[in-house]
């Protein structure tokens, strides 16, 4: 569930050990996303044991592939379960603060076409050189998006390059995949046109995926309820934040008008990092928070 590779940087503790030290549990996936799964299971277990009389169902939607293509969330929709969603509480890392907006994620691919050549003969057209030129132009692109009070600036990040078949052959094909994060309200097709406008002649742009931004307003009844519950269990009012990451909500909530919030025991910024960990106290508090939100919202 939403677990990325260990990476090449050495860990101080074995990444799958689950070691506990000074109140923190260490291991890959501890903050993102195992801690929230445990907290939600604990909350559901408590709801059952206490036999709360709720006016609706509590659905634990644990879906695979959230870090990539949202395969599990899309399957949830295919099974006809999307219309069961009346409110969406997500457990992505928030440090038990309250997140009410996440950026859109636009994944693009630039494909350069060259002409095969050999170092001892006709040089051909080097597709890697063409992509290199494109990346130089891409670095200078300014995304003129309206500012958002809870989000940082839009970003463009290159994630993967593939090209060439042998060291002594001129590559006739090269691709680069890159990620663009955008605030709510931006037409992603206009961004695609902007990128196409700076592409060299031998480069074509295609859309790999688009995950829309989602947002709740700070005065939304569900957001206010979540804030009150968090305050009660943390003895401090949670900060209202926005994040650059996306969640399953980007597809589960598309086309729906339902409240949305993220409260997670994991720490912002620790996802995918070496020595990833989570505070056990946050996990225990999250259990109570999830339970109380469910009871209050469905009473």
What are the defining features of this structure?
2 domains; 7 helices; alpha+beta; 22% strand; Aminopeptidase; 299 residues; Alpha-Beta Plaits; 14 strands; four-stranded antiparallel β-sheet
Mind explaining what this structure looks like?
By secondary structure, the protein is an alpha+beta fold. It folds into 2 domains: 20-102 and 213-297, 3-Layer(aba) Sandwich (Aminopeptidase); 104-211, Alpha-Beta Plaits, CATH 3.30.70.360. It contains 7 helices and 14 strands. The chain starts with 19 loop residues before the first strand and ends with a helix. The model has no long low-confidence stretch (mean pLDDT 95).
Domain module tally: 2
* CATH hierarchy, class of the largest domain: Alpha Beta
CATH topology of the largest domain: Aminopeptidase
Largest sheet: 4 strands, antiparallel
CATH superfamily descriptor of the largest domain? Zn peptidases
CATH architecture field of the largest domain: 3-Layer(aba) Sandwich
Task: Report the sheet-strand fraction.
Answer: 15-25%
What general form does the structure show?
Answer: elongated
By DSSP, the count of extended strands is 14
Briefly, what is this?
The protein has 299 residues and is an alpha+beta fold. The protein has 7 helices and 14 strands. Helices cover 30% and strands 22% of the residues.
